[in-house]
């Protein structure tokens, strides 16, 4: 099951677009361009979402995250990422 | 670290509007600004989608995409991806597209995509071949060097900059300052190119002189036209370019100019998120970029 998930390639749905206002280290949002909603993000969640580009597998994204946060426990990072992916898929933000 | 991000994403989605509303910046209502940015993003992305379906020339489509991305939109969107794919497909074997200007926009856009880095590299090589011996670029190799083309090229593709190109721009802009009417967007593109390349002109007063002149060109309605009191008045392209140019030097300008300029953009945004202009996507994308630059400068 884990292997299936790790090889999965996802991308942000066309309805959504990430936005960064380049000020004081950045202010981050996810825009729903169909419904007009704005979701505020922090830099880490913005980074994770930007990795879902339709090219990188979850396993590759996990490696990117581990190199970005080398002091984190890999298992914990994977579980967090999995939890996030499940939520974003459920919300139809990732497909 | 990741745990925090999960927490924030989940809660942001649960209470999106509250999250935005609770975000306050002293003396600045960011929520209102965000609505304008979101509406503009939405309208301009739809234009790209529509232009792709109609096969509109790449110069127009890529310009919108580049200005949107410079204004903060992330390239990771299917509409942008379709544009990148079309761009790469229509590139000629010599690395260019049709002329200097569309190649500049296509290259500026494609260089955002790692998978098209070779295409972007070939485009840069082609653009260098189009540079005149005096350092400037025209619309084609047969054209004379132009401030508008050279200024934008040096801003959007600074890797093409050289001392001779920046010197050429300085000379031409100094000559332009002696001619009436002087065009606001040429001054703005010059400021953009100078700042992006950290260029210090030989004429030490040129930047401050240009800033003061551009500020003084603001119309009474707070927008800019091609020059002050030009009969057609303020428009989103000239206002956008002027604000983007001035915001390069945001520590050296009068903040009231940016505040009032941003107000003009806000007051003149149409209900559909665009700004009225002959080439609506051109004026709107410059207005969008300018608004994001003004807001970022003002809350920095």
Report on the structure:
The complex is a heterodimer of chains A (95) and B (300). With 95 residues, chain A is α+β, with helices and mostly antiparallel strands. Chain A has one domain. Chain A has four helices and five strands. In chain A, the strands form two sheets. A three-stranded antiparallel β-sheet of chain A has the order 2-3-4. Chain A starts with a helix and ends in a 5-residue tail after the last helix. By secondary structure, chain B is mainly alpha-helical. Helices cover 63% and strands 0% of the residues of chain B. Chain B has helices at 2-14, 16-22, 30-54, 58-70, 78-90, 100-110, 117-130, 147-156, 163-176, 184-196, 206-216, 236-247, 255-267, 280-299. The relative contact order of chain B is 0.11. Chains A and B meet through strand 2, strand 3, strand 4, helix 2 and strand 5 of A and helix 1, helix 2, helix 3, helix 5 and helix 14 of B.
Tally of separate helices of chain A: 4
Q: Report the oligomer.
A: heterodimer
Q: Radius of gyration of chain B, rounded?
A: 20 Å
Tally of strands of chain B: 0
Mean pLDDT, all residues of chain A? 89
Provide the β-strand percentage band of chain A: 25-35%
Number of domains of chain A: 1
Mass-distribution shape of chain A: globular
Which strand order do you get reading across the main beta sheet of chain A?
2-3-4
Q: How is the biggest beta sheet of chain A arranged?
A: 3 strands, antiparallel
Please give the most extensive interface between any two protein chains, plus how many residues each contributes.
A-B, 45 and 40 residues
Structural category of chain A is alpha+beta
As a percent range, the share of helical residues of chain B equals 55-70%
| Residue windows where pLDDT falls under 50 for at least 5 positions of chain B | 1-27
Task: Show the helix and strand layout.
The complex is a heterodimer of chains A (95) and B (300).
Chain A: H1 2-7, E1 9-11, E2 16-21, E3 27-32, E4 38-41, H2 43-51, E5 53-57, H3 58-68, H4 74-90
Antiparallel strand pairs in A: 1-5, 2-3, 3-4
Chain B: H1 2-14, H2 16-22, H3 30-54, H4 58-70, H5 78-90, H6 100-110, H7 117-130, H8 147-156, H9 163-176, H10 184-196, H11 206-216, H12 236-247, H13 255-267, H14 280-299
Helix pairs in contact in B: 1-2, 3-4, 3-5, 3-14, 4-6, 4-14, 6-7, 8-9, 8-10, 9-10, 10-11, 10-12, 12-13, 12-14, 13-14
